[in-house]
Design goal:
- InterPro entries: Hemerythrin-like (IPR012312).
- Residues 14-119 form the Hemerythrin-like domain.
- Strands 1-2 form a two-stranded antiparallel sheet.
- It is built from 6 helices and 2 strands.
- It is mainly α.
- The protein folds into 2 domains: 1-124; 125-173.
- 80% of the residues lie in helices and 2% in strands.
């Protein structure tokens, strides 16, 4: 069988996939760095919460590797020349790896929401929580925030959007965002 260049519609689909992948990986990196460098040390600083975040840090390392592996497979697909059967095989590999990333992230987020975040309500005052959110927002690039906030807000009802904006205003009070 002769070598096959990607058909135009497949190349366009791969380019769109790569764009979505880069977006998600960027959001993920921002999220995991904020947790590893800000949130988890804050949790560990509370005497009652020693070693509570270690498993989540290990999750971040495993998930980072999943992203790296997926990036390699997408890159192979983007530069693909080969038979139709090989193209199909690579496309299935990308699909399986996307499913693995999704499953890992969903499990991780569910665990954080049910186990980790309630600890903040219990062990941190509202002011401490707002301070931490302010630090995270301050470290997050404006471009990431401009992309992330509308994306997140799409999934909220009107009341949830108002609560999110109120929380952001409170967390960024007396910062450059407040001006």
């Amino acid at each position: 069988p002769s070598a096959l260049l990607l058909p135009r519609h497949v190349a366009v689909a791969v380019q769109a996939l790569e764009g979505r992948f880069q977006f998600l990986w960027g959001i993920y990196r921002s999220h995991s760095l904020s947790e590893d460098e800000i949130v988890f040390p804050a949790l560990e600083s509370k005497q009652a919460l020693r070693n509570v975040s270690h498993a989540y840090t290990l999750d971040h390392q495993q998930e980072e590797q999943l992203f790296l592996d997926l990036e390699k497979v997408i890159d192979v697909l983007r530069r693909f020349t080969g038979s139709l059967a090989q193209l199909h095989s690579h496309a299935l590999a990308v699909r399986r790896m996307c499913a693995a990333v999704r499953a890992s992230l969903e499990t991780h987020i569910r665990a954080e929401e049910s186990e980790l975040w309630p600890l903040f309500t219990e062990h941190f005052s509202t002011e401490e929580q707002q301070y931490l959110v302010g630090v995270i927002i301050g470290r997050t690039g404006a471009q990431v925030l401009q992309t992330l906030l509308p994306w997140i807000a799409e999934s909220f009802c009107v009341e949830e959007k108002e609560q999110m904006l109120g929380s952001l205003r409170q967390a960024t009070k007396n910062t450059m965002f407040d001006q």
